[in-house]
Amino acid sequence: MPIITAPQDFNVDDLYVDLRHVIDRPLYLKCEGFNFAGSVKLKAAAAMVEAAEAEGALTENSIIVESSSGNLGIALSLIAASRGLRFVCVTDPRCNPASMRVMRALGAEVRVVSDRDANGGYLGGRIAHVRDLCESGAEYVWLNQYANRNNWLAHYRGTAPSIDREFPGLEVLFVGAGTTGTLMGCARYFRERNRPVTIVAVDAVGSVTFGGIPERRMVPGLGTSSKPGLVDESLIDDVVHVPEPDTIRTVRALSSRGFLFGGSTGTVVSGASRWLEAKYPGEDPVAVAIAPDLGERYLDSIYEDGWLREHFGAELPDILDA
Questions:
Q1: For range 122-130, the mean pLDDT
Q2: Distance (Å, whole) CA 27 – CA 289
Q3: pTM (whole model) above 0.85
């Protein structure tokens, strides 16, 4: 039986769901939410903290500060608590209330920045606040998930090899794009080994990560209003942009079959299903998608009819009138 001393030491890395009976497409879903942080972000958070400690940038007197829409903030809250460190998460109004409560329960300070950037999002304002904090005192240490190579290295060393072991005949891999750490780590792993795996990035409509037109986005997780520094488009074969109403329809379809996943997972599965239908109609490729998180933290948003009526009333009559 597993016996651990630190919460980040536990992470189920080999659980897959065969979604054929749910979406009628050949797709295996790698579930990354079965750890104490509840998401794939635990891997990146642990790698960035460990590297900062090894380099001497992070000491027992440091205060970790990071910009996050929720999942990385929770992962860093957990690791900071286990190490006896202070952590400040800079987030925005789209962050799920449940995620904020989890971070505060773990001892983190949560600051909500509501200033919009030039693309109508909050990322620019969040990062500006982080920079101000770092300028205010040397004790603040910004890990910078958007440009930190340890973000993608965590998945190059862990997530991608895990998939490779379970699916040696892998043909297509779908990865959601937020900071693009998971995407870049997996893409580099398979490219450097000359594996004939088609890497498909899944992004939200309204995100600018791959040159999209900035639009309103309400579901936290995937997508950005400022292009992350980690992105290397030469490693990616294709990009699918998913409208948020399709994300919500997909998570509701999954939950109706007993699988309660988060918004990022809904986006990835929706994009993968559409891509497979277009590229492999009637065929049976070996395809895997990565599910970044589970659904409990979204109960007040994408699973709540009042929230949906407020933000998507005209776009989701098939759900709201059911």
A1: 91
A2: 7
A3: yes
